[in-house]
Amino acid sequence: MSAKxxxxxxxxxxxxxxxxxxxxxxxxxxxxxxxxxxxxxxxxRPVQVDSFADFVEVFGEPQHGGVASDPWRHAGEQAPxxxxxxxxxxxxxxxxxxxxxxxxxxxxNKTSGGEAGWKTxxxxxxxxxGTNNGGGAYGLWVFSGNGFGTVQQAATATGSLAATWYINSxxxxxxxxxxxxxxxxxxxxxxxxxxxxxxxxxxxxxKSGNTEKRITFNLGSTHKNYIRxxxxxxxxxxxxxxxxxxxxxVYWLGETYENTLxxxxxxxxxVTMSAWPADPDDNGLETYDIVTGSIGTAAPGSxxxxxxxxxxxxxxxxxHGTRQTPYVQAKDANGNPQxxxxxxxxxxxxxxxxxxAPANMTKLFKFHALxxxxxAQNNLKVSITNIKYSKDDFDKWGSxxxxxxxxxxxxxxxxxxxxxxNCNLNPDSINYVGRKVGTRYVRFDEGERxxxxxxxxxxxxxxxxxxxxxxxxxxxxxxxxxxxxxxxxTAVNIAGVTTGSFSASFNxxxxxxxxxxxxxxxxxxxxxxxxxxxxxxxxxxxxMAKYMKFLFPRVPARISASQxxxxxxxxAYFGAYTGKTKTNxxxxxxxxxxxxxxxxxxxxxxxxxxxxxxxxxxxxxxIISGSGDYYWSPxxxxxGKALNSTGSGGSYKDIxxxxxxxxxxxxxxxxxxxxxxxxxxxxxxxLEDKTQLSNYAFNSVKEAVDICRDPEFAEFNLxxxxxxxxxxxxxxxIETAEAxxxxxxxxxxxxxxxxxxxxxxxxxxxxxxxxxxxLKGRGLNSSYACAYYPWVQIRDTVNGNVVFMPxxxxxxxxxxxxxxxxxxxFAPAGFNRGGLSSGVAGLPVINVTQKLTSKERDKLYEANIxxxxxxxxxxxxxxxxxxxxxxxxxxxxxxxxxxxxYVKKGIATISSDILFxxxxxxxxxxxxGRAEPFLADVKARFGLTDYKLVxxxxxxxxxxxxxxxxxxxxxLKPARSIEFIxxxxxxxxxxxxxxx
Length: 996
What we know:
Distance between the termini: 62 Å
């Protein structure tokens, strides 16, 4: 402090400390950016995590690969998630890493073959099932035995879809004994209605060319012939590009609905009570009640079930076996799953509201998953609870709580991941639901190749964002009172005939193939001739009154508050119910299949005329009570039987006063945009000779790199795509690092080890010569990139498995260790900081895919590839630290490049603090006063041997001042690492003097 600033009043000695030794703040920890596959988490945008525990919470544990117990229901686990292992390697020793999870995004101008998602190789054959060169999706409908005799009886026969198979080439049908008792042993050109045996077993014939398989199966989950045990459930086995011939299949079993089947075909309700209303609008309440029991026991009135396998096609819209739905980040597009709309209560009072219908209520809001793809619908649900109407004359807005829950929890033991309390629909309130949860999303601008944020309110939820309806705030009384369930396919009713050909009733002239769809009256949307026939003759010798009803499964809804055995009926969450039965709240595995996206071409979230409808529309307005219990009864509000219909002044408030104010919605319809027939959907062999337009995986990887090209959008000092060694994409990554000039790319090389997921030849071990030739052919010359050889083997510390790992993962781990024990300008190589066997990689490296000789190491190093060597005693070690710069300079070494990145970031941080300050000597001195200690510290820690900082009138001339420029020069002498040690051993005579 200057003496002029002291206040001298009486004589004395005044002492003050002036500390000029303070070091400027170092650049905050930034860490690398890793692009690749993870088990879950936000996709196609960089997400920063600061510990491995945080990484696991957001992205899941690293997956070692291998066949899951049920690959269809556990997709993404058959190939190692290299990006996750890279994150683990870095976070072992350093904090902060940025991760971009890859999902399937197709280009707007895609060409044929560039579509994201998957489809069966061949479409559904038009002459189903009489040809073997077709393919597509095939569904099993099961009917209860009652309603069938030798011929169709007068009663309606109700069947429900129980399972779906996807066939690349060929077709399938049930064989055995048909309705008339006639033996059917082969595909006969028509889909036969077949009897099960007394234990509920069916036999399916799958035929492709000259190959056929006959498989006996049962829908009971504990049966030895359980359907998911005896059929192939791994789509990868149908991919001849990556599956050895001996293990290939032409089909896989997809969705099954064994837990949902019985209550749909038997129509048994949860309760029987005199107050239970009739079903005047044929809304099919019975079709989603849940009963106890299992397939494999005798159905009511019969010892057998009837079954038929039909081809599935959505009219002219598309094949059910085509799921080419891309992952999309947008306001209301496919990709991220959504809930149905939450709608308002019936504000009108009175004992009845004859015009009441859920579809006529005001749509208030819906939830979208935050870039999580299918993971969200497989793991999350959203509940509304604690709904309160306003009792304040000045604040008319009611309130409610939002819970993000784990899908597999129960109402008896809810697992709440997030809670947003006291929300309302008042846009001017601090508790406005949009403000509490968040409305923001990102949109990729393909022209500028950047992510653009959209939405007014920042997201406070880690899992969902909310979309508020345009009319949600039109009335201050509005409260969320109900929601629409996930989409299902619409049931098909087949009218009966009195005589003649049974197949005639299933035919429409315009039909070319069997389809699923809605009906108008009693006739189907379209069915092909001969799709079902009775017995062997194709005719019925009796009366067929009424119709056959083909149902599609739906997500169950809670019917009774007392089901599941809650301690209080007021604890029940109505709406979606995820339990197995009314007494068993354990998770119903059917749910994961029930919320999947539908065929391509259909709207995945809103009902489509003739093809889809919501499973149900639940509302608290349709709750009834009786015998100390509460029930959901669709139609009870217009019928005047609902809880809010009691007395002439009935109101929605009567329901809330009973403390019945909780219900649940599921997320549904999301898509990862990935090919389920691939182990690793971003394998390099899939990307070869592809472009952004011709391949969704190529487009996804390039987009992931492009969104991170702006240093102000994502900060990182390293960038890697572990396991992706496509030359064009790795070159693009290098060019991105060069353009940013603040990061170094760590790339993997073509010609090195190739894992099993890359081709049907299994593991392919690389060669030094091929790898060097490939790299030289690329003509790379960049100090912003480095490469290593060969792949290594690590032991998974979570599961104990041995996993092959690309060398970029080990290199990133070694760099993290180097930063922790020394500094970025120390070489991440050698036995001290590159000794992989000693754990410096952050992962236990136990082997290499190739033991390099001394000559091979020399050849690699001459080609600027850093060898990973294996020594008998010292173990596995990174034995080089070159960049891919061919030009000889200090920057051809990794430690110098990383030194420059560190110093540039530090000086940039210092410079940012004086930006917009006056361009005068005092400001220059401030800069020098902070930059000098920073550079001196780097020198003291062996990063520099010397430096010089010049900032005066010789650098910042008057002309530059007039142009608002401050110009400084910093001269650096980087400390070089020792890579070669030469020692002369001189043998002398006995009498020689060493002083000579």
